[in-house]
């Protein structure tokens, strides 16, 4: 059961996963078809953002949970991968210490803290990139949902959560590189991060993760549990009085979403070459929600599309007028809310299929605003 | 035969609840037998909806007993467990899943496993489909099966919600103002529908519409200021002077 939207989305993603590596590795440099390696990493970064947007749409679009702290789960996944990449530097750091990352030598630390143990293994870092955000989401969500914290109150405490983590990760004593974060990575799995082939590989991995994440979210939202979640979004008390434990459904989907965000973060870090506490900033979490709103909430593919559109626009715009970006983002959000209440994807689909009831989820979302 | 706690389906004894000093329920006692239908009337603020909140676990009473089937203490359970015990509730304002089809609304209400992983991997079964067909016929929505609940008329939403209640196969149905906003013909059809389900289920109906209560033709309990003012047939309570004073008036 593949509908048109899923077919187009997965088809385009597959085409990109084939075309981008070919254009980077096979086309002759200088020819019109050649993609420079910075562009490959840039597009790969967009794909990780798209996965992050997808994770937010899963909870916001389908369960009505507006998280304004999802950047925290993304950053935790990123730190898990960053810690592995730091360990992989080995003795090629500035201080040439085979056991300790540079920033620990600089801080005069004698040995590796216990929570860095295991991160020399790639698989361990990958697992932790999902476990750490999943665990945080579980603990946070368990308290929040059990106490029936909903709506704007939930959104505010997620902002507080990511802000608290921002402050914590700024501290050198935390052992995550403080202000500067983790950077100067050399290899991943033995392949140089500077090489075109590695970058193409990371791009393909990001495309696969996005495709897999999309398939997972789609399966969840189309299952009977997905219908329950939509019920929670539209009439929480009705769901409860039908005998569903609303808090468990929310907790489940919140944890899945956090783990997807963690995977996105883990793929983001090797492609941008750095992870620092600014990823925890409350503003970046709000930006993710804007991507989803721009693309079309409650559509999955729309969320991914929104992340691509806004970030491509951001790359161009910050090149032209760097200090005007936040104003442009704000204007974009207001414009979309006023003129495209169902997002870009909603508007595109409405063009193709003029007036046939329209997309139910987005309409209800509008009605409740 | 007098009904005692032991052979009752719902048993409320000397229940009190106050909100910021306002005594919403003040020594309420009410006993409902298995298969019985009861109409509850009373002026605004008499405590009708609060009583339903107490039975369904939304509000905890300050004191008093609330027993289900003579043994389960409902004051110790949350909404989901009470729903699973077999107490279904229809809200005053029709509350259905607007963005989902009529069919899916009933599917979600059908009695069955309610846990995350059970529903995540659930597949539609033939007996579920048959049950949904039967319910659609009962609530007269066969033709609207695939339509969104949002597109139903107000009266049809009320019926859909009653259908969702029946889909749970509850032992007790609590129905809050089912006839609100209905045409006269719909009101009479709703009374007919509720009479048809009573017997197999116990039903508590809260209603303002006296023609509707008369059409139900069951024992009536009059609430006033959080306690029972009178109980009996509609003709009996209509003749009680206090009831005339506080409620029927004129």
Comma- or semicolon-separated keywords:
heterodimer, A: 369 residues, mainly alpha, ABC transporter involved in vitamin B12 uptake, BtuC, two-stranded antiparallel ribbon, two-stranded antiparallel sheet, disordered C terminus, B: 250 residues, alpha/beta, Rossmann fold, six-stranded mixed beta sheet, four-stranded antiparallel beta sheet, 10 helices, 10 strands, 36% helix, globular
In short:
Chain A is an all-alpha fold. Chain A has helices spanning 4-25, 37-63, 70-89, 102-106, 122-146, 151-170, 196-222, 224-234, 236-241, 246-272, 282-295, 301-320, 325-339, 343-352, 360-368; strands spanning 182-183, 187-188, 191-192, 274-275.
Regions of chain A with pLDDT < 50 over 5+ consecutive residues? 356-369
Question: Span from first to last CA of chain A?
Answer: 32 Å
Rounded average pLDDT of chain A:
92
CATH class of chain B: Alpha Beta
Beta-strand content estimate of chain B: 15-25%
Detailed description of the structure:
The complex is a heterodimer of chains A (369) and B (250). Chain A has helices at 4-25, 37-63, 70-89, 102-106, 122-146, 151-170, 196-222, 224-234, 236-241, 246-272, 282-295, 301-320, 325-339, 343-352, 360-368, and strands at residues 182-183, 187-188, 191-192, 274-275. Chain A is mainly alpha-helical. Chain A has a single domain (4-368), classed as ABC transporter involved in vitamin B12 uptake, BtuC, CATH 1.10.3470. In chain A, the strands form two sheets. A two-stranded antiparallel ribbon of chain A has the order 1-4. Chain A has a two-stranded antiparallel sheet with strand order 2-3. Chain A is globular, with a radius of gyration of 21 Å. Chain A starts with a helix and ends with a helix. With 250 residues, chain B is of the alpha/beta class. Chain B has a single domain, classed as Rossmann fold, CATH 3.40.50. In chain B, the strands form two sheets. In chain B, strands 6-7-8-3-9-10 form a six-stranded mixed sheet, sandwiched between helices. The two termini of chain B are 36 Å apart. In chain B, 46% of the residues are buried. The model of chain B has no long low-confidence stretch (mean pLDDT 91).
């Amino acid at each position: 059961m593949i509908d048109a939207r899923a077919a187009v989305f997965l088809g385009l993603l597959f085409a990109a996963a084939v075309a981008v590596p070919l254009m980077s590795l096979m086309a002759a440099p200088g020819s019109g078809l050649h993609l420079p390696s910075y562009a490959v990493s840039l597009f790969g970064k967009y794909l990780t953002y798209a996965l992050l947007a997808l994770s937010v749409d899963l909870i916001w679009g389908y369960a009505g949970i507006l998280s304004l702290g999802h950047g925290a789960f993304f950053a935790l996944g990123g730190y898990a991968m960053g810690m592995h990449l730091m360990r992989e530097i080995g003795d090629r750091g500035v201080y040439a210490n085979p056991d300790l990352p540079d920033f620990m030598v600089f801080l005069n630390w004698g040995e590796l803290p216990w929570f860095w143990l295991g991160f020399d293994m790639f698989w361990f870092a990958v697992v932790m990139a999902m476990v750490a955000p999943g665990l945080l989401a579980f603990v946070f969500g368990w308290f929040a949902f059990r106490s029936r914290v909903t709506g704007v109150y939930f959104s505010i405490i997620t902002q507080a959560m990511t802000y608290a983590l921002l402050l914590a990760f700024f501290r050198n004593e935390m052992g995550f590189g403080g202000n500067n974060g983790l950077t100067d990575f050399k290899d991943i799995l033995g392949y140089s991060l500077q090489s075109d082939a590695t970058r193409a590989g990371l791009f393909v991995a990001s495309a696969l993760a996005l495709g897999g994440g999309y398939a997972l979210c789609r399966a969840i939202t189309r299952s009977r549990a997905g219908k329950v979640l939509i019920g929670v979004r539209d009439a929480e008390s009705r769901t409860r009085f039908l005998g569903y434990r609303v808090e468990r459904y929310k907790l489940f989907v919140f944890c899945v979403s956090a783990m997807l965000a963690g995977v996105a973060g883990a793929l983001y870090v090797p492609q941008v070459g750095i992870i620092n506490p600014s990823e925890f900033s409350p503003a970046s979490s709000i930006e993710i929600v804007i991507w989803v709103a721009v693309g079309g909430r409650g559509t999955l593919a729309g969320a991914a599309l929104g992340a691509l559109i806004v970030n491509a626009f951001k790359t161009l715009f910050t090149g032209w007028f760097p200090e005007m970006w936040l104003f442009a983002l704000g204007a974009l959000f207001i414009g979309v809310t006023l003129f495209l209440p169902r997002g870009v994807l909603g508007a595109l689909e409405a063009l193709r299929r003029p007036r046939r009831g329209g997309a139910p989820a987005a309409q209800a979302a509008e009605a409740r605003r | 035969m007098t009904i005692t706690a032991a052979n009752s389906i719902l048993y409320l004894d000397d229940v009190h609840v106050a909100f910021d000093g306002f005594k919403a329920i003040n020594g309420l006692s009410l006993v409902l037998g298995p298969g019985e239908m009861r109409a509850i009337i009373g002026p605004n603020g008499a405590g009708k909806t609060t009583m339903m909140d107490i039975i369904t676990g939304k509000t905890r009473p300050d004191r008093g007993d609330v027993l289900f089937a003579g043994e389960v203490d409902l004051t110790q359970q949350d909404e989901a467990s009470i729903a699973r015990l077999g107490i279904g509730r229809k809200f005053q304002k029709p509350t259905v899943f607007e963005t989902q089809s009529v069919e899916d609304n009933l599917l979600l209400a059908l009695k069955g496993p309610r846990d995350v992983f059970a529903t995540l991997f659930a597949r539609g079964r033939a007996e579920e489909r048959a049950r949904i067909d039967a319910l659609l016929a009962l609530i007269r929505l066969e033709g609207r099966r695939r339509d969104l609940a949002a597109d139903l008329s107000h009266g049809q939403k009320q019926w859909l919600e009653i259908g969702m209640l029946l889909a749970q196969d509850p032992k007790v149905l609590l129905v809050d103002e089912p006839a609100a906003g209905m045409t006269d013909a719909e009101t009479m059809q709703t009374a007919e529908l509720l009479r048809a389900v009573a017997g197999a289920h116990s039903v508590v109906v809260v209603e303002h519409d006296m023609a509707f209560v008369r059409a139900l033709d069951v024992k009536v309990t009059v609430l006033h200021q959080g306690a029972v003012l009178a109980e009996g047939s509609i003709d009996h309570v209509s003749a009680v002077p206090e009831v005339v004073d506080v409620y029927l008036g004129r």
